[in-house]
Amino acid sequence: MWRANGGAILIICGVAAFIEAHRHIPVPTRQPTEAGLITPASGLSPTAYDLLRLGGWALVILGTITVIVGLIRYAVQYAAAKPLTAAPASANGASRTATPATAKGPDQGAIKAAQPWDEGAHGEAVQPGRPR
To answer: Considering the domain boundaries, does residue 6 fall inside one?
Structure first.
């Protein structure tokens, strides 16, 4: 699990690098115009700014890959610790514990009593009601 946590820390450090780079955007100096004011350069140098953003991207990508690899390894270890049971499973995934009993033929009276069709004109299934 240390891979997932370490990767998350790398991602957070990469985001912090983006925030720090955004706070120190390089601004060039302005030469005096009519008023005679000189605006000094502020922020990082263009090279340092580019390296900080590049480092931020590297941390985010490396952290994402580390988290993904860590989660995959964790899932593989979890699957190896819990092997599949050898019990047969039904179509819906529930495991069968007993063998099914032999089937008997249907009772004709039960079929007639449980008829779900009301012989409607469109063939829809309705509850059987009293005859009209």
So the answer is: yes
